[in-house]
Amino acid sequence: MSKQTAVEWFVEQLDKLEYEYDVEGISILEFDKRKIEIENQAKQMMKEQHEETWFSSRVEDMGDEFKVEQKSFEDYYNETYGGTQC
Fold first, then answer.
1. 50 vs 73: CA distance, rounded Å
2. Tens-digit pLDDT profile for the chain (86 aa)?
3. CA distances from 51 to 2, 63, 75 (A)
4. Are the CB atoms for 44 and 50 separated by under 8 Å?
């Protein structure tokens, strides 16, 4: 089974939330609050997925040792996406 992307998770959660709003009648205030929470969690998941990909692309197999680029993921992420907010 393949790993679910942050975008796939976000769409799935948003569909569930919309169902709760349409069918179960949660308030618009609750809908908005939970939507923001889902968005923030999806952003954090995306950042973590970027980090996993970034790190795996930076490791060079040198037999028994590994060479890793010196730039940290946080530096790369901040330069690429403009800040530390998720």
1. 9
2. 577 899 999 999 999 999 999 999 999 999 999 999 999 999 999 999 888 887 777 665 555 555 555 667 777 778 777 765 55
3. 18, 24, 11
4. no
DSSP string, 4-36: PPHHHHHHHHHHHHHHIIIII---HHHHHHHHH
Specify the residue for token string 């889902």.
38
Look at residue 66 and give its three-state secondary structure: strand
Q: Which of 71, 44, 49 is nearest to 58 (CA)?
A: 71
Domain ranges for the chain: 6-81
Instruction: Tell me how far apart the alpha carbons of residues 66 and 77 are, in angstroms, rounded to a whole number.
Output: 22
CA distances in angstroms from 77 to 31, 42, 59, listed in the order given: 30, 16, 17
